[in-house]
Each structure stands twice: as C-alpha cells, then as structure tokens.
Amino acid sequence: MEHIRNFSIIAHIDHGKSTLSDRLIQTTDIVSERDFKDQMLDTMDLERERGITIKSQTICLPYTAKDGNLYYLNLIDTPGHVDFSYEVSRALASCEGALLLVDASQGVEAQTIANLYLALENELEIIPVINKIDLPSADIDKVKTQIDDELGLDPDSAILVSAKQWLGIEEILEAIVNRLPPPKGDPDNPARALIFDSHYDPFRGTIVHFRMLDGTIRAGDRIMFWSNRAEYTVEEVGIFQIKRVPQDRITAGRVGYVVAGIKTVSDTKSGDTITVKSRPCDAPTPGFKEPKPVVFSSIYPVDTDEYPDLAAAMDKLKLNDASLVYEKDSSAALGFGFRCGFLGLLHLEIVQARLEREYGLSLIVTAPSVQYEIGLHDGTSMIIENPAHYPDPTDIAYIREPYIRAAIITPNTHMGQVMQLCMERRGINRDYQHFGSGRMEMVFEMPLAEVVYDFYDRLKTVTQGYGSFDYDMLDYRESDIVRIDILINGERVDALSQLVHRDKATTRARQTCERLKEEIPRHMFKIAIQGAIGAKVIARETINAYRKDVTAKCYGGDVTRKRKLLEKQKKGKKRMKMAGEVMIPQSAFMSVLKGKE
Question: Taking the domain 295-365, which CATH number applies?
Fold first, then answer.
C-alpha cells in the first residue's frame, strides 16, 4: 500500500483537467502513440462535441519514481461544470489527495472555490497547480496572490505547468508520490469496498467501479451488496488502464472494477458497500449525501409505443448518473412518461441527449420548473413541482419558492451589468467584496426559478465570458406565483402549463402564444390560442381558417346574393369548429419549451 496513490484533478471549467490527464497518460506509457487521441478519458461523443467532461473516469498509471520504486497512481478525472458537482463529490470520496488546477490567465474562479471546499470536506491533501503558463496573457504572480488570498493555500508550493507544451509534468508525478499520503486500510481485514460508479455492458451485465477500503476481493468470491443483501459470484476483477485489465485480486487501497453477471440494474447503488459473504465486514461505509435535484421536467416519448423502451433506458442511465431522480408521470396530451429531477439545465440537456443517442429514443421534454411549497387554508401544506398538481387558487393561503445564494466572480468593469441582470431576475444584493487584481465577488439572494431558465448564458454574455457563477440552496420564501394555462379553442393543454411569478406572467403567456401560432398549421376553421390565469385571459393569438372564395361566381347583381353565400359559409365553419379537432404537431411542444431562440 506504500506504493499506491489515489488522487483526482479538480478545477473550474476549461482550466485544462482533461489535457493534463492526457499528458499523465502519455508520460506513463499505458497507451501506444498509435491509439492515443486527445481528451483520452472523455469517452462519450457528447463530451467530445461540447468539449466538456460529464462523467468522472478512473485510470491506473504505473510510474517509476526517482527513488527507483514502482508506484500505482489511480487518477480520477472529474467534470468542472457546476451541474456535475455530484460526480466530483463521489470521485473525491475515493481519493486521499487532489490536484487543484488554476488557469494562469483566468485565475481563481467560482467553481475552483466550490471544488476546493468539497475536497476539504473529504480531508484531502491538496497540491495547487498553475496551468497554461505558456499563454501570452498568463500572469503567474497575480494567480499566486489569488491562491493565497482567495483559497488560503501556500502559493510557493504551487507547481507551474503547461499541459499543452509538456512543461512540468514530471514535477507533478513526483509531487503526487512525495506529497500525497498512501491509502489507509488492512488487506487482512474482512473485505469492505465503496461503490462510486457503475455502467451497463450489454454482454457482461452491470460493471461496478469501486474503491477497496479493507480486505481483498478475488475472482470466484461470493460477494454481497450491503443495502439490499443481493449476492453474486465474482467472474472478474481488475483495474482501469483505458481498457479493463483483469487482475487476480484487488487489495485494500486500490481502485478497480468487478464483473459478477449482475442483470438487475437496480441492485447496484452508488455509495453502497460490497463485502465477501463468507467473512462480511461489521458495518457499511458511510455513503454519499443524496443529491438534491433543483430543476424538474417531464420526459415523454414522441411515439407512445416507445414507453417500455424509455423505462428500460432510464434504469440503465441511472446506473451511470447517480444524481438523476425520476418517477412515473402521465399527461392527457402526451401519454405516459417520467417526471425527472436534475441538478441544473445543462444536466437536463445532457440526459436528454444521452437518451436520444445511446438508446435511440425520440423525446419531448416539458418546460423546466422548480419545487414550490404551497400552504392551504385548512392548515395543510404540499410540495409541488408539476403545474398539473397546482390546487384551486381559492384554497391557497400562501406559496413559497426556493431561494439560492448566488456567488458571482467578475471583473470590476462588469459590476453594473451583473447588478442589472440580477435585479431583473428579482435578486437582492447581499454583499460584495473586491479581491484586488481588478476582480470582485458579488453575492445575491435570488429565486431559483429565475436562474434555471437562461441566467447562465446571459451572465456569460454581459461579462464577455469572464463571469463565473456558483450557487447553493438557502430556503423557501413567500412569493406571488400563478399558473398560466394555455387554451387551444377553449381546451386546456396540460403539457404547456407553467408556474411563473405574477409580474412575468403576461410576457411568458404572450411568448408562448406567439410561438404556438407559428407552429400550429392552419385548419378549415379559426383557432384561438389563449394564455389564461384561472378564468382571466391575459394573451391571445388567432390562426385564421383556410377560406374558399364562395362569391367568385357572382358578377354584378344585388349585394344580398353575396351576403347570403357568405352567411351560408359562416354557418358551415361554425359547425366544423364544433366537430373539428386541432392537430398540435410535436414541433409546437418543442418550440415552446426551447425558450428564447
């Protein structure tokens, strides 16, 4: 165990985690030059297209140090985006140390600070690393000052690196060996292993990724999952070196995988403990905090016959994404589907894209909403996140919505625009402090519902890409929330209902009606699209009917002949309106839910 190190790389988005992982992989020669490609650990197509890491990945790097000993360095690469911070927290639970990467030109940003706190909660040893020192805009002295002032770490211990130019890679490997502690644990104790991830293989069943805390697991052992007492016989254990490399055993302190023909996907949960049936451990390891979803949305298959496929796909995706929460849901307009909870809008987009690509499904996703707490006059209260469950307004005593504490780090020059953006979103400015080096942190208390829509994009726009943003939940506060119903020819379409603040209701209803008018095709009768709060209509658009020119054959003569023909046509249209149904195409649902284009 003296020769094992478990570490992860944490940083803000785009500070160079994946590039540094690539260099460590190339330096330790576990991949031939022919098989190497950039962002080696970003295995999903989505990660490559968007240039972000979504899943944390594990890899074992054999490294011969300057003291002549061979060390096994288990690297766990983590995402930087705030929506995937749950991935980071799970990865850190398997480590003893972390490399905290800071971009030499951007400096310390919001997610750097958030990830540092996550690492300190797990009592990790932290090595600060300043990356991208080859950039013309790199300012190493300024970044060292920020590491000292804003992170409270020793700036002199920071390693200067350019992952792109291969500078300082050896120093990092030596620092991992010399400055990070080896794992604790006893190979002779009863086996105890913590599951931190899993994925589904169509040929081998569920493959569990785990960190061995005590004892040993060998091929042929009868293992047991602590949470549900499910038992399996181990077919194969091994370590990750890009591909899965089988080993005869995994001992305390190491990170590996186990294949045991696990067919029921729900048996493996992240944070569960694995032990050996013949000699079980006394107690499970404390798992992970349950993720708290903040954005809720319903997912329906476009074709209702695909519902069983969607249910199977959700089960398999849940394995690989422990922060996804879902339950069954149904809608009059869209049939059966699932109500899902996400950690943010990017998380929602990624889940939708993965379901469509990896499982070949066509989906409709309803407008994102947050959880509201509603108090009724009879003294009871309820929590809803689905507009369909909104009670009768006459029964409601109060409505509370979730508030967050948003910390925004931005250059001083953009203070006015950030202030204006947050005030538009009903934000309250609680605090701001200047860091020196021309940057400041602004702290706002804001309703979460205002942030989930397109706040992050707008913030990046007003700060020219330099603003960074991190938030945590505060509490629920009273607010004037109403439900907008969308009526098409007087019929309510439940999938388009939205819960919004009264001040924004008219604008939102108008936008929705305009978008539907563009998408719904003309019919043989006039169609009214209305946005309403209760019985009061607050927005309306009309789609005109196709109309035959019935007066074409009248030339000259009395005007009453024309009038008679038009009256006859009008009566026919009226009859048709009573019997006809409006066809709403799927693209109409899509366009409303996309938000501003």
Answer: 3.30.70.870
Residue 144 host element (H or E) = helix 140-146
Residues 6+ apart with CB under 8 A from 344: 82, 83, 294, 295, 452
The secondary structure element, H or E, covering residue 396 is strand 396-411
Options 3.90.550.10, 1.25.10.10, 3.30.70.2570, 3.40.50.920; CATH for 482-593 is 3.30.70.2570
d(CA 483, CA 506): 11
**Distance (Å, whole) CA 331 – CA 303:** 14
Instruction: Please indicate whether residue 101 or residue 588 has the higher confidence score (pLDDT).
Output: 101
pLDDT bin (cut points 50, 70, 90) of residue 597 is: very low
Query: In angstroms, rounded to a whole number, what is the distance separating the alpha carbons of residues 46 and 205?
Result: 23
Task: Report residue 68 as tokens.
Answer: 């002549």
Q: 430-465 pLDDT, tens per residue? A: 888 887 667 788 898 988 888 876 677 788 788 876
* Phi-psi domain of 39 (left: phi exceeds 0; alpha: psi -120 through 50; beta: other): left
At 62, the pLDDT band (50, 70, 90 cuts) reads confident
Q: Domain segments of the chain: what residues? A: 4-179, 192-276, 295-365, 372-478, 482-593
Residue 465: CB atoms within 10 A of its CB come to 9
Instruction: Encode 107-146: b = buried (16+ Cβ within 10 Å), e = exposed.
Output: bbbbbbbbbbebbeeeebebbbbbbbbeeeebbeebbbbb
Fold of 4-179: Rossmann fold (3.40.50)
For domain 192-276, the CATH class is mainly beta
Strand blocks (E) in 78-204 = 97-103, 125-131, 159-160, 192-201
CB 399 within 8 A of CB 501: no
Going by their DSSP bridges, the two strands 468-478 and 428-436 should be labelled as: unpaired
Q: Can you tell me which residue has the tokens 């689905």?
A: 386
SS3 (DSSP) at 325: strand
Helix pair angle (455-462, 415-424), 10° resolution: 160
8 A C-beta contact, residue 16 and residue 131:
yes
Burial of 575 per CB tally in 10 Å (0-12, 13-18, 19+): exposed
pLDDT of 469 above 80 = no
